[in-house]
């Protein structure tokens, strides 16, 4: 698993410890590091070509994020997420995203609406290319952009924290979908309602959208636990 880390320079102005943290976090989020995998500082440091210090600091931050569990004598392991954890997170997400689309519908402008449509078109391109990683990434971008359009920093911060709890299952959720047409149509509906300033319809559509995702992810977890 460690061999799958792809250490990419994120650009000037980003510290080495932040880059290590980001790489490890994204590997966990994408499901490349499975729950229970032990994160050993030396192999990770060697793979990334860094000292153990930024790796140790990154693991500490990942523990604070709830993505890693550190046990004395056993070291650090990738945390697991149970069905209850996902259900709780997505139930809260329904509330948060309902508020986000409502505020977005009140604050949206033509530029922001066009951005939402562009992101959904990026998902369409990824679907044609059968690139599940890009589908997942752009799906996350779309929901993030809607929260940005709501113009509420506290809401956006909460949304980001919730996303961290379920993102590891997003790729598997995307892979489990037989047809992406329904998701794309749902996105179009949400975007259309927000762009039209129809807050009530946007709330209804985003709620059903997340409930369907929640049911699918919980089924994936249930099959794992059987």
Note down, in words, how this protein is organized:
73% of the residues lie in helices and 4% in strands. By secondary structure, it is mainly alpha-helical. Strands 1-3-2 form a three-stranded antiparallel β-sheet. A hairpin with a 3-residue loop joins strand 2 and strand 3. The longest helix has 27 residues, at 199-225. The two termini are 25 Å apart. The relative contact order is 0.12.
The percent range for helix content is: over 70%
- List how many beta strands DSSP finds: 3
SS strand fraction = under 5%
The end-to-end span amounts to: 25 Å
Poorly predicted runs of 5 or more residues? none
- The helix-and-strand class reads mainly alpha
Mean pLDDT: 87
- How large, in whole angstroms, is the Cα Rg? 18 Å
| Biggest sheet layout | 3 strands, antiparallel
Widest sheet: strand ordering: 1-3-2
**Total of DSSP H or I helical runs spanning 4+ residues:** 9
Q: Any idea what the shape is? A: globular
H and E string:
HEHHEEHHHHHH
Give the assembly state of these chains: single chain
């Amino acid at each position: 698993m460690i061999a799958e880390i792809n250490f990419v320079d994120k650009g000037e102005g980003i510290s080495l410890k932040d880059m290590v943290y980001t790489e490890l976090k994204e590997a966990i989020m994408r499901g490349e590091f499975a729950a229970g995998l032990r994160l050993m500082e030396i192999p990770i440091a060697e793979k990334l070509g860094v000292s153990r210090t930024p790796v140790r600091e990154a693991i500490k931050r990942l523990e604070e994020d709830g993505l890693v569990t550190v046990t004395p004598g056993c070291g650090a392991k990738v945390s697991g997420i149970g069905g209850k954890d996902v259900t709780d997170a997505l139930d809260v997400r329904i509330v948060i995203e309902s508020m986000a689309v409502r505020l977005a519908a009140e604050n949206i402008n033509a530029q922001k609406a066009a951005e939402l449509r562009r992101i959904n078109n990026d998902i369409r391109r990824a679907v044609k290319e059968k690139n599940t990683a890009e589908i997942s990434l752009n799906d996350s971008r779309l929901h993030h952009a809607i929260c940005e359009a709501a113009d509420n920093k506290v809401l956006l911060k909460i949304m980001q924290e919730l996303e961290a709890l379920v993102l590891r299952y997003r790729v598997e959720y995307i892979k489990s979908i037989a047809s992406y047409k329904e998701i794309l149509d749902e996105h179009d509906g949400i975007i259309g309602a927000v762009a039209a300033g129809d807050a009530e319809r946007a709330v209804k559509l985003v709620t059903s959208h997340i409930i369907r995702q929640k049911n699918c992810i919980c089924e994936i977890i249930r099959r794992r636990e059987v």
